[in-house]
């Protein structure tokens, strides 16, 4: 098991190295001169040259890459080139807990809804419950997350005035203020994720319920509850866990968009503001962190997969 | 080619067709989905004639509610929401379909070459797929738009590049299994060219999972374009797209709910219809295993 974990961990590090390299070189493809574009309003030729030197852009591409990569390993992603020019790592460190809070809450809400819905749907196949769950899942999959966010604001913040429409309060200031600010965005982000998981649990359970070992377990006289929780569900969850890893991309992409609706200054908002301000160091850093979250959450899912199903790590 | 082979090849499409119609007859969701898609396609093609107003024409009739003149109300600049949404259909469908077509062509080429030739070609393609796998599709699109700028063409390119790996992966795994089939061996023994084997013998047999993936991808491309437009990274500020209309109306949703409801409803209806049709195709083509396996 240890060697499997190590192998997967090293594999993820290689992927992250490739991601960082790609992100670095892609940005150098920016058409035109980014510095000139950045200083379009205020910059003369001298200022452009000075900025170019201060950012090390007068050196060869490979040297720039070497310096950037070395700095990155030490946690230095450069400074923002817009506004107060804060260090990129500082801006990202401030944003990260917000995005993680949002994604994790969305994840929990999605699972709490999807697991019972998937089980109900599979055990009462073709019933009214099954049809309802299936239709709701279709709706959840088809609804753009930012639109759902707007609808939630119209209903729960503007009309009912139960919850705040925008902003973020850290958990350190109390559970309710944190939760009340995050619950609407979390629902908006988690809905599509929940729909995918519920559908997957349903089809995976239906497959397992047909299997020979379930017939044997039933003929041994196990109660329906023991059948479901002792035999069917653990086996049905194996493919579901893989899908959770893949669908995690939806959570992160959703967070990026939905943060912008609720004015939560998480990674998504930082990323989009960075793009609109042509603040390339910020954009580069935010994309790196977002893909790192994605790569390592997938690693976690893979390891979990190895724990649940020993056949995986033996291969 | 012998007569038997010709008859056999002619039988497959016929069988497939009958399965399509047979499953469609029982699938209410797919029927609704197809009808909705046809309606939106009609709206997209005839938008300039169907729209009662110029989608960008500003009037003094600002934020007026639903009426006979303005069936879906007007926005803060007095523009007719129905006409704007109707024109938005064009952009959404154009981007949804063209994006997937581009990703499809490149993804199929990569997948066929990697799966059939193996070796270092496969290694390179696989590493590329792995690398793209490290980014959520939408983040790739956002990053590409950040690098190359906004605009119709850039959005199409950004979204297509984001979807390539999905197709390459499926076609590669299908090609890997199909190249071991006896009929492919036979074609090789007969001395057929590699291109002929790939495009005449292997690709047609991998079509089913590709169609299903393409359908799913169109819905994601439409959602992706809407999200980009909503974030201000879409086509431009003057072309009415569903995401942009929602972004424009966002500040006024408490006074004019229709600005927050109808553009999103249009996106949801199209995506829902595509998902209904996708589910039917998945059943009709029996590809659950191939796509997910």
TrEMBL record, chain A:
Residues 96-305 form the ABC transmembrane type-1 domain. It is a multi-pass membrane protein. Gene3D superfamilies: MetI-like (1.10.3720.10). Keywords: Cell membrane, Membrane, Transmembrane, Transmembrane helix, Transport. GO terms for cellular component: plasma membrane. One of its GO terms (molecular function) is dipeptide transmembrane transporter activity. The keyword Membrane applies. Its main location: membrane. It is found in: Cell membrane. PROSITE patterns: ABC_TM1 (PS50928). InterPro entries: BPD_transp_1_N, MetI-like, MetI-like_sf. The keyword Chloroplast does not apply. The chain crosses the membrane at residues 9-30, 102-123, 135-158, 178-201, 236-262, 282-308. PANTHER family: DIPEPTIDE TRANSPORT SYSTEM PERMEASE PROTEIN DPPB-RELATED. Belongs to the binding-protein-dependent transport system permease family. This is ABC transporter permease protein. It comes from Salipiger mucosus DSM 16094.
TrEMBL record, chain B:
InterPro entries: BP-dependent_transpt_permease, MetI-like, MetI-like_sf, OppC_N. Residues 89-278 form the ABC transmembrane type-1 domain. One of its GO terms (biological process) is protein transport. Keywords: Cell membrane, Membrane, Peptide transport, Protein transport, Transmembrane, Transmembrane helix, Transport. It is a multi-pass membrane protein. One of its GO terms (cellular component) is plasma membrane. It is found in: Cell membrane. It comes from the Bacteria. This is Dipeptide transport system permease protein DppC. It comes from Salipiger mucosus DSM 16094.
